[in-house]
């Protein structure tokens, strides 16, 4: 019989994996999979790319010596654990228990979905995951800033036979299949949502009955939408009334789900965007209704009592002042490449006396580290996988033994023993603490927060609050930095020479794990040629990339996928207004021949 485990890579799908005689394959019976595994997870099985030997100050040493060096490094005044998302199994968190004992710091905020999550919480109180079966029952799917075929491909079967609307500045693969594709200017989604809501009120298509019961402040929200000037905004967002009319025809009186991705919220204003999209959904009465809802990256830990909860002090994950610490443990992450403003980050990391890298692969951060500890892959240890894309939970079974690396649990055990700390329970205890809290649904484990119809009774922690509409929007960026509008019909070269920088995910990597890239994609209207080397610069830094022309982009954008070496030299380390999130796309760049 095949053993079951789940993919621990940071992705919506959290696929279940079957293992038999050293081979892995997908599980066709898993609700969130169709039996196929992606190229990336297959690559994770590959031993040849791993760090095999621990290192201290450049010298290969035994694991015992390396762990002794780690323990020594933590005998300091100020220490920090900076955890990335290389493996999102729950057991990654166990190291935080050691940080609490040793009086160290953790991080707060997010490089990922924090702004959007804050916007959702502002409206709904809690960020519940949209169950897969509601997507299945929908009639219309709006894919809004999510690159579905790349980042969430196992959802594709759920879209079959549905009307499809895609809102994205890039003509992505999913956009090519859409009934309506709005190739919007970046960073305008707040206005799109507000305008759609306003038009729905204007034509009396709002769901009055639902609103009166669950969102009684809707009249105020209508007034709020009317404070926005239609003509000026249409011009600003580069859409016309016809575009809105066509979208409205699909939204009215149908079962609609919005599948929103991180693309709409990598900005200082990201929380307002999600709050506006949720407010639009509320006007249509899409919450708590069959075949309807807004799916974003849900709070996977919702409903669980977390056995790894600590009282540690926390510092920002977005603009971490690494230099304030004597010892920094980087676990499952590559901050030297994935954090914004690489110039700032590398300088700060250089100021750390003891930089420890605990991971699988060599990367920008491992190269800077004084101590390198190879990790075990998720095939070589026990864990549990929750998901931000669906309700299912899978126990991750150890399916392989390897001489290489140490698990997060054993790493923590070693340090507890070295320091003589007590209170660390057994590995089984923690696994069981997570898995025993799950519910069951058709023979599958699901999150304790799972409800067939989320928000069916109302909003907030207890489920008895009203929906809170968005009532303010602060945006300094647009006011201070005017940019020239690019008219898609004229295909003119924009007069403003600076371009929006988009940095979405790539097919062949998970963030910076696996295949790296060196390209910048540009619309041919900008006059660059395939293969040409260009310098891309922003007010934060610059880097050299190779041009790939793409008709799928607007003329006012440059696209560099986030696995590309050097991309974050260009990005700012500012923090979103709400949600303490990174704002990778709050930047405009210049492209020059070299
Ligand atoms: N293959 C693969 N899968 C992954 C990952 C990976 O690296 N590789 N990473 C995983 C992780 S960590 C995450 S967080 C998820 C994220 O997955 P997604 O939510 O899909 O996020 P992105 O790939 O960043 O971009 C989504 C889309 O937003 C669009 N976009 C950019 N700016 C805007 C805007 O202003 N408005 C609108 N409407 N759209 C915009 C981009 O063109 C892109 O098509 O994917 C996960 N899955
Ligand atoms: N420009 C730009 N930058 C971005 C983004 C963007 O959209 N644009 N997206 C951001 C997003 S959404 C995210 S989530 C972050 C991700 O940023 P990070 O969390 O830094 O992710 P990775 O670069 O994938 O690094 C993962 C590391 O985990 C290690 N690893 C894998 N499995 C294990 C394990 O089981 N144990 C241990 N100890 N280590 C393991 C791998 O070797 C690798 O070094 O990047 C962000 N960076
Ligand atoms: Mo992410």
Structure, described:
With 594 residues, this protein is an alpha/beta fold. It folds into three domains: 3-48 and 66-111 and 302-446, Rossmann fold (3-Layer(aba) Sandwich); 114-295, 3-Layer(aba) Sandwich (Dimethylsulfoxide Reductase, domain 2), CATH 3.40.228.10; 493-593, Barwin-like endoglucanases, CATH 2.40.40.20. The strands form seven sheets. Strands 5-4-16-15-14-6 form a six-stranded mixed sheet. Helix 16 links the parallel strand 15 and strand 16 (371-374). The chain is globular and about 70 Å long. The N and C termini lie far apart (59 Å). The relative contact order is 0.18. Mean pLDDT is 95; it is low at 479-494. Bound molecules: ligand MGD (2 copies) and molybdenum atom (MO). One ligand MGD binds next to helix 6 and strand 22. One ligand MGD is lined by residues 10-12, 40, 85, 112-113, 144-147, 150-151, 167-170, 172, 184, 186-187, 189, 261-264, 502, 504-507, 509-511, 585.
């Amino acid at each position: 019989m095949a053993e079951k485990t789940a993919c621990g890579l940071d992705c919506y799908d959290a696929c279940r994996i079957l293992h038999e005689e050293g081979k892995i394959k997908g599980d066709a019976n898993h609700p969130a999979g169709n039996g196929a595994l992606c190229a990336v997870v297959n690559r994770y099985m590959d031993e040849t790319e791993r760090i095999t030997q621990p290192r201290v100050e450049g010298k290969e040493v035994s694991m015992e010596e390396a762990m002794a060096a780690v323990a020594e490094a933590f005998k300091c005044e100020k220490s920090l654990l900076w955890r990335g998302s290389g493996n999102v199994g729950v057991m990654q968190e166990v190291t935080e228990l050691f940080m609490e004992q040793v009086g160290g710091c953790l991080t707060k905020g997010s490089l990922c979905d924090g702004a959007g999550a804050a916007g959702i919480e502002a409206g709904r109180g809690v960020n519940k995951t949209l169950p897969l079966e509601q997507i299945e029952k929908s009639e219309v799917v709006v894919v809004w800033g999510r690159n579905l075929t790349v980042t969430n491909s196992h959802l594709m079967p759920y879209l079959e036979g549905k009307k499809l609307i895609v809102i994205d500045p890039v003509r992505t693969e999913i956009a090519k299949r859409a009934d309506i594709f709005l190739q919007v200017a970046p960073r305008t989604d707040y206005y799109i949502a507000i305008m759609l809501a306003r038009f729905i009120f204007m034509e009396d298509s709002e769901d009055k009955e639902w609103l009166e019961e669950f969102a009684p402040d809707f009249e105020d929200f209508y007034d709020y939408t009317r404070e926005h000037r239609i003509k000026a905004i249409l011009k600003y967002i580069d859409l016309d009334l016809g575009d809105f009319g066509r979208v409205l025809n699909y939204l009215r009186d149908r079962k609609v789900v919005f599948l929103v991705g991180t693309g709409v919220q990598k900005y200082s204003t990201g929380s307002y965007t999600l709050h506006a999209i949720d407010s639009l959904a509320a006007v249509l009465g899409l919450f708590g209704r069959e075949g309807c809802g807004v799916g974003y990256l849900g709070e996977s830990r919702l409903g669980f009592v977390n056995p790894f909860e600590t009282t540690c002090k926390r510092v920002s994950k977005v603009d971490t002042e690494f230099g304030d610490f004597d010892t920094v443990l980087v676990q499952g992450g590559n901050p030297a490449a994935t954090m914004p403003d690489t110039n700032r980050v590398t300088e700060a990391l250089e100021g750390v006396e003891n930089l420890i890298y605990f991971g699988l692969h060599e990367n920008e951060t491992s190269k800077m580290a004084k101590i390198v500890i190879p990790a075990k892959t998720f095939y070589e240890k026990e864990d549990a996988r929750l998901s931000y894309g669906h309700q299912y939970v899978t126990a991750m079974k150890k399916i392989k033994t390897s001489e290489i690396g140490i698990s997060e649990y054993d790493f923590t055990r070693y340090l507890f023993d070295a320091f003589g700390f007590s209170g660390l329970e057994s590995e089984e205890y923690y696994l069981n603490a997570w898995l025993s809290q799950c519910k069951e649904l058709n023979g599958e484990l699901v999150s304790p927060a799972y409800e067939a119809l989320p928000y069916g009774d109302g909003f907030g922690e207890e489920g008895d609050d009203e929906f809170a509409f968005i009532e303010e929007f602060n945006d300094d960026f647009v006011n201070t930095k005017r940019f020239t509008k690019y008219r898609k019909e004229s295909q003119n070269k924009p007069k403003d020479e600076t371009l929006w920088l988009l940095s979405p995910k790539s097919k062949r990597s998970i963030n910076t794990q696996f295949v790296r890239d060196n390209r910048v994609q540009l619309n041919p209207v900008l006059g660059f040629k395939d293969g040409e080397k260009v310098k891309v610069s922003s007010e934060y830094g610059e880097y050299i990339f190779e041009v790939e022309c793409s008709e799928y982009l607007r003329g006012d954008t440059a696209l560099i996928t986030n696995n590309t070496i050097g991309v974050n030299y260009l990005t700012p380390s500012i923090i979103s207004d709400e949600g303490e999130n990174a704002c990778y796309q709050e930047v405009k760049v210049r492209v020059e021949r070299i």
